[in-house]
Amino acid sequence: MSGRETVVVTGFGPFRQFLVNPSWTAAQGLKLAGLGDSIDVYIKELPVSYKTTQEIIAKLWQTLKPKFAVHLGIARASSVIILEQTGKNSGYSDRDVCGFFPPDYRCIEGGPEKLDSVVNVRAISKHYKQAGMDVIYSRDAGRYLCDFAYYCSLYHGERRAAFIHVPSSGSLASAKRLLPLLREIIVKMLKQLEDH
User: Fold this and answer.
1) Known catalytic membership, residue 156
2) Given the residues 71, 107, 152, 165, the one annotated as active site
3) Under 8 Å between Cβ of 45 and 13
4) Residue 43 above 70 pLDDT?
5) Annotated catalytic residue within 84, 107, 152, 156
6) What are phi and psi of 103, to 5 degrees?
7) For the segment 72-84, what is each residue's pLDDT rounded down to a tens digit?
8) What is the pLDDT of residues 95-107, one digit of tens each?
9) Cα torsion for 76, 82, 88, 91, to the nearest 10°?
10) Is 17's pLDDT higher than 90?
């Protein structure tokens, strides 16, 4: 029996009309529900700020050395769960809540243009789609803080990260519906990591 392993789950702080960001509420729910007996879930709220998010993510990987990181963000006007495959390094020209954008509009100076998660999220989304669930796959996380956090994590964590956009409307926006499905998706990702 191997020892316990850490999985980091992040959500974002207040953003525009979301005074309490549903992605952070979901992260707290996952901490309560747990991800299995051998997993310690460590949750962290990321501010909608490039600089602080970058610092927090680098530090999480350096200090906790997690097995995996799952970053949650809100997909405005979406009623489905979106599993993101790819983080992009450049093109961040939208200002964050502090009014800043990253130097040179990029995440990591000299980093690859894009990074894919080690997890095959297309396969996971396909499984749910076939079961008639509202889970879709995407290769474009939107060039804002979601995409930025994801790329930083893929970079520091040697691609052992995933990004999930949670819906802001529709039936899946209720924590009662969302959490069991989110938990199941993440457990599937961890299983895929084991088999990798």
Assistant:
1) no
2) 165
3) yes
4) yes
5) 84
6) -55, 135
7) 999 988 999 999 9
8) 999 999 999 999 9
9) -20
10) no
